[in-house]
Amino acid sequence: MNTIDYFKLQAKNLHKDFKTKTPPVNKAATAFLFEYAPKYFDVEMVIANFHIDEENFTLMNAQHVIAKIANFDNWASLLKASPAELELAQLLYDYQHRIDIVGWQFYIADAQSMNREELDAEIQVDIFKKMVIEEDIFDDQVIESYLLKHYEIEISDSGRDRTSTNRVVNQREDWTTKEVIIKDKQKYLDEKYPFGEIPKLTDEKYCLHCGKVITVGDYKVFIDDLDSELIFCPNAPKCDGTVIDWLPVNYQKSK
Hints:
The chain is 38% helix and 9% strand. With 255 residues, the protein is mainly alpha-helical. It folds into two domains: 3-133, no CATH class; 172-254, no CATH class.
């Protein structure tokens, strides 16, 4: 199934969920006009966030909502998007329980500031797969999802219970016992750096977390509880900033 057809299916499923509406048993007990028995979406959250007219919800309305959740202005914009933009949109849609649109936009804005270049959709797809799917670096955040499947408990490969609203928070202080000693730091950076222009070991960056200017070559690497290697600020473990928190030095001077 191509991405356009995938989003068409999501819109149909949302429309089906709205068709389950029935008059409420107790009108005083609900802020909505109807009660729903949805299979796919948190209908009440959709209604509240998108100001839905419950009495006149059409398939076209459903398409608009899906487009907005996927970070497009409207359905027409979704249909005109490039393959890379559509792939990124599907990632944001499918993993909305890990990071929301606003969070992703802030993350990319920081990355663009750090790299001094705009990151196109194709590069963002690679970053998303690495940082959100593989590394799951935002797992200390509680993110609401419009998709009911994200509220089902999933057992991770490590046997750990995970839900979108009750995620296990990594304890950074535990990572001090799992530091990885890197012999060839430039080679490691060349292979693991998640963004476009790879810095030199002699470059200086401003760490947003500890507020200090650091030398890139002094970075540290730790393994988290999911066995993922993360590049940390040289001041770790006192500072829990990772490579995404490194900004140009002039950012510090402009504050």
